[in-house]
Give the backbone structure.
Amino acid sequence: MKLDRRSFVSKSVTGAAAAGTLAFPMVAKAQQSFNWKMTSAYAKGAPFYMDGPGSATDLAKRIREMSGGRLNIQVFGAGELIPAFEGFDAVRAGTVEMNHANSYFWTGKTFAAQYFTAVPFGMNFQGMNGWLYDGGGIDLWNEVYAPFGMVAMPCGNTGVQMTGWFKKEINTVADFKGLKMRIPGLAGKVYANLGVDVKVLPGGEIFPALERGVIDAAEFVGPFQDRRLGLQKAAKYYYTTGWHESSTVSELLINKAAWDKLPKDLQAIVSNAAAACNVISEGWCQKANSEAMEDLVKNQKVIAKPLPDAVVKALRVETEKVLAEAVAKDPLVKKVHDSYFAFKAKYDRWVEVSEEQYHTRIRG
């Protein structure tokens, strides 16, 4: 068969052009970039939350680098774009695409949200991660937020927190009556039932309120964060047990409509960057808190002690009442509650032969 050179060249060029036309939109779509805004419940520069390993700014940096600049997230501290506790509404409305905070701040929106930050007398960091990643916790989290048009995932964890700072000793449950205390989440409801006048204040307002006597006690996070706020200068009794927050999850809250517009690879980058920050931030807390605790006790004369057993027992009883009341009112709360505590029951049995043995027999 005789080959017509001019016909061959013409058809080749036409074919190449057509192929280029078909391929171009796919390339353009693959390289599409997104510019998002992320607000926070915490002030700009706050360690763990806004600055340092596993923080909101670290998360944004990881996403930008992993995506090759295709997803850029501008981070705003509390008060820069919106007030500290308005992230839920801002994400829901699409004013911003993301918010970095803790889900228990949204108790007024849905009680069930609190289970995804911390449950009094609940699981530690390892157990919480087990439930969230492999026990259906994240799926339930998104089920809770579906009516609001949002999705969420863990992006940080403080580990066990401290009970808090008190100007006077706590010897009995009666010492709580009339006490004005900064405390968020489920623990606030428990304390309120025991006579505490509960206040929810942003981190930056805690020290001046404690110093001026607006509040008599305050809980924030742990030794490093609390020392940074100067709480040791306003109160000297620092109680332990972490009964209220044995593991405190940071929440990455995302507008679902914006999320659905991201290509699958960018969604995967966000999810993996958040998971990395979840682990990295908790590791940072272990180092920072161990050093700060030693300084507070040795150099700043802080009196650190556990709550009396009778007080802890009363707090546990009251916690069970608060949770039972919430479960009875809302089927979705019951669904989340049952999942959380079913997982905890199995995890506790494993802890008895693993972590507990380490802490009582190996650690020394």
